[in-house]
Amino acid sequence: MLDVLNSCKGFILDVDGVICRGSREIEGGVRGVKRLIEEGKKVVFVSNNSTRSRRMLIERFRSFGLDVSEEDIIVATYATASYLLKFGRLRVFTTGEEGLIEELELAGHTIVDYDEAECLVVASNRKLDYDLMTKALRCCLNVDRYVATNPDRIFPGWDGPIPGTGMIIGALYWMTGRMPDAVVGKPSEIIMREALRKLNCKPEEVAVVGDQVEVDVVAGKKVGCKTVLVLSGVTTEENLKDKLKIEKPDVIVKDLDGLWRR
Amino acid sequence: MLDVLNSCKGFILDVDGVICRGSREIEGGVRGVKRLIEEGKKVVFVSNNSTRSRRMLIERFRSFGLDVSEEDIIVATYATASYLLKFGRLRVFTTGEEGLIEELELAGHTIVDYDEAECLVVASNRKLDYDLMTKALRCCLNVDRYVATNPDRIFPGWDGPIPGTGMIIGALYWMTGRMPDAVVGKPSEIIMREALRKLNCKPEEVAVVGDQVEVDVVAGKKVGCKTVLVLSGVTTEENLKDKLKIEKPDVIVKDLDGLWRR
What we know:
The structure is a homodimer.
Chain A: H1 4-7, E1 10-13, E2 20-21, E3 24-25, H2 27-38, E4 42-47, H3 54-63, E5 73-75, H4 76-84, E6 91-94, H5 98-106, E7 110-111, E8 119-122, H6 130-142, E9 145-148, E10 154-157, E11 160-163, H7 165-176, E12 182-183, H8 189-199, E13 206-210, H9 213-222, E14 226-230, H10 240-243, E15 251-253
Parallel strand pairs in A: 1-4, 1-13, 4-5, 6-7, 6-8, 8-9, 9-12, 13-14, 14-15
Antiparallel strand pairs in A: 2-3, 10-11
């Protein structure tokens, strides 16, 4: 089996399911991050979270005893705001929450109502309602540019599955026939290339670590990195066999710390 | 051109776009209904409305000076509740509003939470929120039977398009891969056969009148009725040519009263 600790200089780490579940720390994950840093590895966190800004994630990491900076984090909110700069500073209508709005405004975009927008940004929102979906529908029918922060259809909530950004993408597609021009989050190459740029490593020197085969492993393979699947999140001993039909990771470990226990 | 007034004994009339727009009367529509009744035609109203009970529609009709009874109305809420009786009196979780709940309970079904249901009934809800979509998702993943009141993806609101029941069908399909076992409203044959039973006429003796080619004209053709398209709703002189590519009605008139002005 591949020894990623010896062969890799850089690590792209997923957050939810690797470091924490929601606001609760995964001990083996946090211990693993500390070890990677002690051993001089370059680390960047890449998360499909569409409701939190980098600032919010940093606060959460601090509560686990991890001291990271904005430079170490690429979250789908921030990555989407950055990606859009390719097209200028835009007037944006978004379905998203405060965390996304914070990153869009930090990047220089302006948040406007649906009928004044030149760009629609779709992202999950726990305050979603009929009025917001009506505005998103009308925006989607008229706007030039339409992007989504991430493609996730379902997330594992603490008491069962909850809808992800994909729910809104699907609802809009069903109503209008229109899909986003770009989806920024994993497994999209957009967010992975940004992570490789931050690490300043060649893809073959980098391991992508995550808990979802169809998100993290697929994203890692797409850009030519090594891939590590951890069983501390949504993939478990029970559903592993089915998931491996999608794509095979180079390494499977119980949690991030498991890299040292093999 | 076909003379439906001479050749038809029964009329299946759409409501929104034929008799009224929301709570506002369409004069030529109401006048047309009165004339049909004066001339001794059998009339039944068939509506894809998924938020109102028959009682609610009767009140609206009264405000237009039309005196109709529950026997004369088949609305998707009622038709769905009736259709489900095929499978017994069920424990139902629904995304729908009070009007649908009223009809489900009148038919003998019991409204329960998502984790106690044996049947999911999807219908539009102007109070839809993230919590309701989460419950619908979980119910859809587990329940034996799943039906939808109507397939409409977008409705014309007073100030622009608004999401219909189809938005929820699409969102659930995107998240779970599951489509309803049955969709009751037009153009489904389920609601049309129910209307023909009420009229007690042969299909060829009946004219289906509506404002939407893909809903009303398609539904009428499916069950072998004559079809009349009125231009008092969503189909207009401007979009007519495109709509006729879907299906051709036997007769096109400005409004229902136009049947006497040809």
